[in-house]
Structure formats: C-alpha cells, structure tokens
C-alpha cells in the first residue's frame, strides 16, 4: 500500500518524531490507526495493550477471507461493547 502525504502532513509527522514522541514513521502511523480505531467505536475505551493483544491475535491466526475477517471483527467488537456496557459501575 502506498500512502501519499501532503507536505503539511509530512511536516507534522516529522515534527512528532523530532519531538521524541515516536521513533519512526511506522510508529506514528500505528498510533494514528489506533486512535482512529478507538474513535470508530463510540463508548469503547480499550487500552493500547488490549488493542495490541487483539492485533497480535489476528496476526497469529490463520488467513481469513475478507468476509470472515470483518465478521470476526464485528463479533469481537459487539462482545467488547456488551462487556463495556454491562461492566461494574462505580
């Protein structure tokens, strides 16, 4: 996959790296994707460790068809939302 950044986007990525928050463009992209994933599921507040665990689980699993992949993502997301919504309240 090729991603083309505008000069402004590239400047912003380099500024984040130069500031020491991340060591590489790959790390910046991974953090951005994690943020997008978290925002795409309203009400779900997964930790970075939980998301990383899910990613590693997926990478270690057998190759799925696109439909199988999205069905598994939807099922896991629904389960997490149910768990989040029915968890203990303080």
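^ structure tokens above, recovered residues below v
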């Amino acid at each position: 996959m090729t991603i083309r950044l505008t000069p402004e986007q590239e400047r912003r990525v380099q500024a984040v790296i130069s500031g020491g928050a991340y060591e590489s463009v790959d790390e910046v992209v991974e953090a951005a994707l994690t943020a997008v994933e978290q925002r795409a599921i309203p009400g779900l507040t997964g930790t970075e460790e939980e998301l990383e665990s899910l990613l590693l689980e997926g990478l270690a699993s057998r190759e799925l068809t696109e439909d199988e992949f999205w069905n598994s993502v939807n099922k896991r997301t629904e389960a997490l939302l149910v768990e989040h919504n029915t968890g203990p309240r303080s």
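The chain has two domains: 1-40, 46-90.
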